[in-house]
Prior knowledge:
- The complex is a heterodimer of chains A (201) and B (365).
- Chain A is mainly alpha-helical and 201 residues long.
- Chain A has a single domain (17-188), classed as Winged helix-like DNA-binding domain superfamily/Winged helix DNA-binding domain (Arc Repressor Mutant, subunit A, Orthogonal Bundle).
- Chain A has helices at residues 17-28, 34-54, 57-73, 84-106, 109-114, 125-136, 139-150, 155-162, 166-185.
Amino acid sequence: MGCSPRLYGINAHRKVVSLHLQLAADLRARRPGVVADLLAEYGAAIGGVAYLIVRDAADAEEIVMDTIEAAWRQADKLRDDAALRSWLLRIATRHALTRRRRHRTTQPLEQAVSQPGPAWGEPSLDRLIIAEALSALPGRMRAAVALHHYAGLTVPETAQAMGTSENTIKTQLRDGMARLRLALEAPLPAVRERNPDARRA
Amino acid sequence: MRDELDVRIVRALRAEAEACALAVTPEQIEGRLSRTAGLTWLTPAMAALGLVALVLAVSLGIASPKFASAPPETEPSVSIRMGPDGPELPEDAVAGLNAYGAEHVDEFGGLYVDDQSQGSFVMLFTDHLEEHAAALAEIWPRVTVNGVRFSEAELRALQDSLAAELFGADGIELLSVGVDIIGNTVQVALKSDDPTLEEQLEAAHPGMLDASVFPMPGPWANVESGDGWRLLAVADERSEAYTVRAAGNTTEWDAMWAAIGLDSDQPEVDFDAEIVVSFGHGLSKSCPELRLDGVRVADGVVYSVTSDPIAPRGCDADLSAAAVFVVAIDREALPADRFTVQLTREGGPGCQDCGFTPVVEVELH
């Protein structure tokens, strides 16, 4: 599935503590309209992280819905209202990593190879290179990079979101960024001509 | 330089994430919430506010949580056709059955379509089966009521608690956790080196949990030789994915080595006694490991045998790399005049449109 037209737009990195607190209180009380508010405030960040992890727009949409649905149901488990955003991203990451595993078990290789790519607009070369390099990272390394370098979580927050130690996250971030830097620095590969005859003995 | 690269990476990540805007609406999420059976939204705060009636109405599918003070709304229309030529179920039947299940959440074990008889639903309950069957017959005549041990709400609660408990736990890699409505169980799959964990988990939730525990992957290595063959090199040249090659003399061997893109020293091969074959397996981005287990010669076909050393795991479908195994095979182990080289015993995926398949015919001179 390709990208869909943007139906909502927010600043994913806006941090207003009072807004977090109010939204957390609204969520806990299940106030009418809180689903829309959560989606408007955090939907892009959740969707962005999900998309960077699962690399599929349809799956990312499902994860946004799964996350807010889970937050609604588990609102009483939110211990620190000011940490609402990182709590939501933690839920999203869990859904993304488990969905990724399920997804991988059910999609035949031939199908996806023949699928057309997303309908990109005019992506920059950097974005194309990083998108490909990101896809080649192991899933949990990709999640660490997305949470820290895209969503702006601190290392401790990233570790908490992924349910692992800070040292593990530091290692994943170091290795992940090293591989992304390598991709940016690497010369563009020349197009290789496929000649079936050359494969014959 | 490094800082500059990091800035470009972060910008690219942001562009990549934001370029693919997602079309999710509040109504979609609220629709999910309103369709889910159960009073899981009932909190002390809501009860104190006198919203019990509202919650009940929502769980029955006649109100949306977003518009608590608005007039009741009806469940979104649902239409199910039983197969391409089968009967179409009335919208009211599906909504009505769901609403009935929500109304009896403590005993409701779930609903599924009976694929053995067109137009029939199976609804599961933990108790009062006859009463439920009689009531459901008023909603839709073709409903079978079966007894189960656990309600769906109990199963979902266990699913959620397991996911929270096991995800990220030390020494555990959670693969999946989900509810099997028909089997009336929660199914969890994970990796752990604790041989007692499967038994512990199932014992903690007798009859309710079906656990599958797989060992954590340990160190692994390719098999480097076998009857009549030896591994010469392993490459990762992506363009070699789904490609096999064969070389019967030094000239062809040099060409193969260059095509595979290896920088290391080219191994010596005695072409009077051996030929060289390469097996280029495609790898997905999420499963970059593949182990060579052997090379087989049978019925005039030479093929490689491989396995996933990290299994079980799911692998996505994006081709991102290749594992190219270059092996020398004794001529004595091969058919005398001609044979076929292919990736696997079955042949392996090809690309007819691209003009190649992972099969070559080799004639020995």
